[in-house]
Amino acid sequence: MAVNLFYFFIFPGLLFLAVAGAFLSWFDRKISARVQFRKGPPLFQPFYDFFKLLLVKETILPKHGSPFVFLLAPLLAVFGATMAGVFILLPILNINTGFRGDMLVIFYLLTLPSFSFIIGSLASGNPLAAVGGSREMKLIISYELTFLLLIAAIIMKSGQHFDLNTIIETQQSGTPFIGSISGVLLFIAGIFCIQAKLGMVPFDMPEAEAELASGIYIEYSGPPYAMIKLAKYIMLFILPAFLIALLMNGMKPGIGILWVILKILGVVLLLILIKNTNPRVKIKQASGFFLIWMNLLVVIAIVLIAFGL
Amino acid sequence: MGFKDYCFRKSLWVFHFGGASCNNCDIEILDCLTPRHDLERFGILLVGSIRHADVLLVNGSINMRDKDRLLELYHQAPKPILVVAIGACGCTGGIFAESITFAGPVDAIIPVDAYIPGCPPKPEAIIGAIVKLAGKK
What is the DSSP letter of A205? Predict the structure, then answer.
């Protein structure tokens, strides 16, 4: 029991995920600044933002809305992100939980932050938030099928194993999955799914700074907005970690810690470069992109896996 | 200075309210966020919603229609919020001070924490004011 609480709250749970995610968020902002020939924010900037929102600012409740749901949604987002993070990081750290079938639990927990943002935005009673919420809904419908097919392909490739621990062991005893043609196709689809899940620029229509004035988060201020920031920091860390566990053989002990940090930084760098070199697409284009092209890519990968490539 | 104040002054998020402006001050404000001046190195971001803002930048002369909007924005902002009046029109009314639709300079409507005079003020003057403001709080 005490061990489980330690797992959920300290390491690799809430505290570790939040700190690692905050540093990755700084990395994101710094690299974006360097790409635009700017200097960029200082190292502890995400912590200043978070503690300012949490400790200094006032919480404003919308007049025409449901305050209870509005305040509960950010907590639900942090809860979902943290649980998913614990289930992803324990197998990466080679701690066997003996939980078979955790892939599906991770899949559902990873959708929880997006769903709670939708619920929160619709509970705020703001028209711009409602537009943002409906766009996020359409985006979820677009990318979730691709993500589920991707997980199915990984399960097929590992020989019908439904738990992350065995998938990582299969890769560590053989070659990493990315070392094959189907693995590369899955990696491409995975990167775009993560981009959409994080709401990064080609797929950031739900918050759309320019037209919706930060859309789904428009009514949040103070501590609830700090919770949203926290959930976003955690998601920025656990989604690349999940991709690494699925395709790039997780973490080996010893010097492997350095490798896994480099792998996460590499995946995040790729995400940031895609974010900085692409304009925002329309929701129709995003749906078409995922429902036709990315699904086609993953289906081709599944066919290749069936032939053992 | 406590931990809370330190975090607050290291992370000022700016919401920009343009009154009946001639747009020169708006251009200079946007100039501060470009690669040449880069206000993000002080942790300053331009946000789209008043609910996220820590600083309310007001420029342009405030006429009778703007006054209600400005008051509404000020009441909707989460406290503590700092108000900065930019340009001659924001500080005093400038050449519009005797106009019939003029509803008073910004400090006659809401409390102002910093004034940046100039028509328009240079980006360096705006950055200097923001840094001084962050040091004051």
Answer: T
